[in-house]
Amino acid sequence: MLANKTVVLGITGSIAAYKAADIASKLNQAGARVEVVMTESATKFITPLTLRSITGRPVVTDMFEPGSEFSIEHVALAEAADTVVIAPATACIIAKMAAGISDDVLTCTVLATKAPIILAPAMNANMFENPITQDNLNKLKARGFIIVGSTHGRLASGKIGLGRLAEIDKIIGIIQQALGMGGDLAGKRIVVTAGGTQEPIDPVRHIGNRSSGKMGYAMAEAARDRGASVTLITAPDSLPEPVGMEVVHIQTATQMKEAVAKAVVQADGLIMAAAVADYQPKEVAETKIKKETSRLTLELVRTADILSEVKGDFLKVGFAAESQDIVASARQKLENKQLDLIVANDITDADSGFGADTNKVTLIDRDGKVDSLPLLTKREVADKILDKVVELLGGRE
Ligand code: CTP
To answer: Are residues 222 and 367 in the same domain?
Structure first.
């Protein structure tokens, strides 16, 4: 997603300026071309040399720097940018932008660009909470600026409060989302389910499965990065909370069914990557079950088949975790559940399926077309599935 994109990273004079080096590094590693613009006060906190060494690109600190690649810096950068990110953004730069003042290379770049602009504020808690700053942020938000909210935490003053720069991964996620605006899923609503549901036995125990949630998360992030507005419905997992989408946390198959029914209203597609329990304990003990008997029998009853029962006119994509007769079994599921597409994976392969970062799948569509993909990362698999989703959605229009 970030490969071959130009990200103009504006750095202003906050103690959090050192964190911009990490942002630049992560963007650079992901293949983006990072053009750093620093205000004069930013150069007091972190040197242009640091940023230049990380990005391998000249760092702009002056609008009229001679010999630089950009003739008139702010115009050239503004036009080259796929997105402009100001991180950290001080109260001062926020006030200037809200007032339309452009008296340095960064504010001029902001005024001259048509690319999405992202602001990650970082400042003292009192400055952040001051109604003047809040008004300025609201004004910028109303003008289409994307604000990555400050977090609550320890500030440079030693105090605890609001005004801390958002987490780097959150900023990167928002950048990816901004770059995806106008992608081939722009304007589409996609619902993705992820993880393995847990069916409680008593207050401390449950029946679960080995799904890690990684495939579903990769699906949701890939859809977000192609411009879709995404709802991710996820069973408990240990993955970091994804940004730029609505995330609904559930535990049981019944809760997932309810969340799916709510989310698919007006959806264009449902992608069920979750490993949903097929059975749940008939009764859940109210107190912890004691080991008083030598045997314990649990009676299980079927859960609802979410994908088969969900109603609505949207594209339905299922996954089929199989250990034998993979294509034939998946095709059967596609027919039984009336799906548009099914993604079959061989769970007996260690590189594929549960817990792995890679997956080897076969896509089977409702017309019977079979596409066997090589071993790919889950993110690559997600994009291949979405290529097919885009094609099938096109066919419905
Ligand atoms: N699925 C669902 N609701 C369930 C079980 C499964 O919506 N109660 C969905 C899964 O999210 C997946 C697809 O149906 O997209 C196939 O799931 P899978 O576990 O492979 O198949 P099952 O239908 O459960 O059949 P079986 O376990 O007998 O193979």
So the answer is: yes
